[in-house]
Amino acid sequence: xxxxxxxxxxxxxxxxxxxxxxxxxxxxxxxxxxxxxxxxxxxxxxxxxxxxxxxxxxxxxxxxxxxxxxxxxxxxxxxxxxxxxxxxxxxxxxxxxxxxxxxxxxxxxxxxxxxxxxxxxxxxxxxxxxxxxxxxxxxxxxxxxxxxxxxxxxxxxxxxxxxxxxxxxxxxxxxxxxxxxxxxxxxxxxxxxxxxxxxxxxxxxxxxxxxxxxxxxxxxxxxxxxxxxxxxxxxxxxxxxxxxxx
Length: 246
Hints:
The protein is about 15% helix and about 40% strand.
């Protein structure tokens, strides 16, 4: 099916833009920006929830703390210790300091059990900022059985984050389907990246969402029920397919 366009069957998803309290990032356009975020963990950032996003199966809570004295590794340890001290019903899988996109991060993956439904969830908890910037936390939550397929998408969202040097007064969440992450090395558009995957012969009943991370597009494929079925990476400069799991 290479070279054959089937526009009536494909429905590429445009990204939306979140911006509040000095943090901005891209997220899939088929996510809602007003979902219920249930916190089963306990830490000092919970009183500053500035974003509640998700698609019905996964949620993303965005937290803001107007302090700048902590380095991320120290704050990550404080966060994990607070969970233990407060009797959180869960366990830490990993706690790693690294970098996602242009951002230094402390990534914590942990399991938790919903106290009402007893469903086991896996959480991707990312701390950003610190060392002169205000601190933000992004907590992605998915049922443990689905976490592995959503994890690349979570990392794509974190990779699109930009943080202002000075956090401004909180402003309402903004949605702009045409806005994309600025990168001077980008040569092709998200629509063109999606078309490259369409032309490669993916099944015609999938919905594609291209999200810019660094110099590549992370493209996520959804089925008709909005479940993730695979992902692929396209070089944003050359259009070359770097990996394809669809």
